[in-house]
Design a protein that fits this description.
alpha+beta, two-stranded parallel ribbon, 183 residues, 6 helices, Nucleotidyltransferase, domain 5, two-stranded antiparallel sheet
Length: 183
Amino acid sequence: MVMGYGLILQRGKELSMLRMGVLKLSKLENQALKLRKIFERVLEIIDEYHPDELAIEAPFFGKNVQSMLKLGRAQGVAMAAALYRDIPIFEYSPRKIKQSITGNGAASKEQVAAMVQKLCNFTEHPDYLDATDAMAAAVCHSFQNQLNIVGGTGESKLPKIPKGKKSFNSWEAFLQQNPEKKL
C-alpha cells in the first residue's frame, strides 16, 4: 500500500512544487498500524508546511469491496488529520482531476504526471505515480479556486492531450516510448 502526497505553492496563477512523495505502508503488519502511520505523517506534513487547504481524490467505485473499504479508511484518516488542524478539505473525483489537468477525464496516470510536471515546473520523476496523482489533486483544487475567484467559465485553458494515447505502467516505460520528453 502506497499513499501519495503533494504540496504546491501558488503565487497568483504561478504554481510550483513544494514537496511530493509517497508514504510506503506495506511493511506495517496490520491495517490499524497503517492508518496510524497515515494520520501521524499527514500531521507531520501539516505541521511542517502549514497548508491552507487539503485537496483529496474522492473515493471511486471499484469491483473489489475490500480494497474500496481500505482506501476509504485511509482517506478518512488523512482527512481527520487535516480536520484536527482545522484545515478545510476539498474532494474531487478522479475524472474531475484528470479533466482539470489534461482536458481529458479519461487521461492515463502518465499523461496526468507529464502535465503536472509542466504546470508545476519540476523535472524529477517520482518512483510512484501516486505522488503525481496527489500533486494533480492539489493543482485541480488551485484551478477550481481560480475559476471561483475570477468568476471563470469553468472551461480549462490548458492544452488538450490527444485521446487514444498509449497508457504506461511506469515512468521508465513512458520515457522509453517518448524520448522527446526526456530532460
